Amino acid sequence: MENPYLTGNQGPADVETTAYDLEITGALPHELDGRYLRIGPNAIGDMDPVHYHPFMASGMVHGLRLRDGQAQWYRNRWVRVPSVSGQLGEVPVLGATTAAHDTANTHVIRHAGKLMAVSEAGALPVVLDEQLATVSYNDFEGKLPHGYAAHSKRDPNTGELFAVTYSAAENGGQLVVVGADGAVTGVERIEIDDKPMIHDTALTANHVVIYDLPVTFNPDAAKLGFYPYVWQQGRRSRIGLMPRYGTNADIRWFEIEPCFVYHTANAYEDGDRVVLEAFRHERVFDSAWWKPLEVAPALWRWTFDLKAGTVHSEQIDDLAGEFPRIDERRIGAEHRYSYGVALHHGEVGNLAGRGIAKHDRVAKTTQVHDFGPSRFAGEAVFIPRANDSAEDDGWLMSLVHDGERDRTDLVVLDAGTLSAEPVAVVHLPVRVPAGFHGEWFPTQD
Ligand SMILES: [Fe+2]
């Protein structure tokens, strides 16, 4: 069997590179002073193509340091969980862990001054330094019942970080609240009678969104060494609204048509209603255990009427896409714009797409910056021009692989116009394999 995640640009990088003073086409805005980091799966050593799955793979983080209109360096580093140190023949950086799932390959976040590579399903965050070297686990002073989450939402006003965590070790999940100072302030059980995969959440002024969808832990798949979360035909799909500081008893559950959601665009409250927008998948991990994308996903809206106890579902865009991002100053408030990856039709198994889409909820338009047939873009992160600039006044940053050159560029687009001409393109001397999520970390004073 040929495993699609071990070939082409979905296959792993096999060396760590450090490169300085990268070539730039166009002009990097001087406001961009910081690091763009993006992480993804990156197998190390010989992989069995029958069992390899990117969601379980070792993580590799890629980073660029931008400053004064220059791209000062590019680095890629494996996150040195013990198995990676062993494969590399190095003295382990990290101590022993009881984590159910020991990898960090899905997202990079910074909270309370700690830069962390994060995954879900029982994995502990791994703290990285500014040059992407592995430093330590962050077990949040032992306060997490299991690991942390790949996705969390930061309240732009309070700085609190909200996440829904889960692990194969226990049914259901937990709502974990971390204060702006990095200390855990709340852990609440979420009672569910099996073990769903909960990849993301959403935050509104008063609620946290819980996805209880029919991709659940299958012990037989785990025993056989396959990715253990699979589609469970006939299981209910529901979305829960949990008060930010509530308990399991306070969750209001709303049944929806069967589907799966990896990623939220945003959620907000509108009087007695909660509005949630996310990319909806008809099904995943169904026809084959290795298929995280089966049918082209699209942007949907669920409107929950808290008074009537009803939910209204509607597709709001027909573009095949994924990896939605917004201006994160709008998390939990009504947003106008979201940005996603426009997928190549017929290549729904790919972790990258043909372009970057801008969805405008007011004009009801979708604009696509198309990179062309041989170029594949990853998730685009929105960076505001200044702290007080308007919602789409800033840039989008994405790693784009050029299949003809087998090299990757960091492409900076004007988010306001999505103009065909990028603001700047930073040329990397290597390819960056298709990956998961990234973030822009401005230089801290
Ligand atoms: Fe994700």
Automatic annotation (TrEMBL):
EC identifiers of the protein: 1.13.11.-
Domain of life of the native organism: Bacteria
Cofactor(s), by name: Fe(2+)
Cofactor comment: Binds 1 Fe(2+) ion per subunit.
The entry's keywords: Dioxygenase, Iron, Metal-binding, Oxidoreductase
Keyword Metal-binding annotated: yes
Record family assignment: Belongs to the carotenoid oxygenase family.
Name under which the protein is recorded: Dioxygenase
